[in-house]
Amino acid sequence: MLELSKQRHVSPYNIAIVHAGLGDKDQAFEWLQKTFDSRSFNMTLIKVETVLADLRSDPRFKELLKRVKLPE
């Protein structure tokens, strides 16, 4: 996906989902931050996206919820 992103747009949210699925929490949060910074509507999905379930107990996830203005 990163190679493809050099040629065309790849949503940072999709890259975050891949990292989350691989269990790489730090990279998942980095790409979720990029998703937030790009003001992507995908941030509204983070509470229901099943692939992100393992991130929900992390304090960084709660901080993202606050910034997106979603209830915990």
Provide a compact summary of the structure:
This protein has 72 residues and is an all-alpha fold.
Alpha carbon gyration radius: 12 Å
Structural class: mainly alpha
Number of strands: 0
Could you tell me the strand content as a percent range? under 5%
List its salient traits.
mainly alpha, about 70 residues
Describe the protein in words.
The chain has helices spanning 2-5, 12-21, 25-37, 59-68. The chain has 72 residues and is mainly α. α2 packs antiparallel against α3 (25-37) and α3 packs parallel to α4 (59-68). The radius of gyration is 12 Å and the shape is globular. It starts with a helix and ends with a helix. The model has no long low-confidence stretch (mean pLDDT 90).
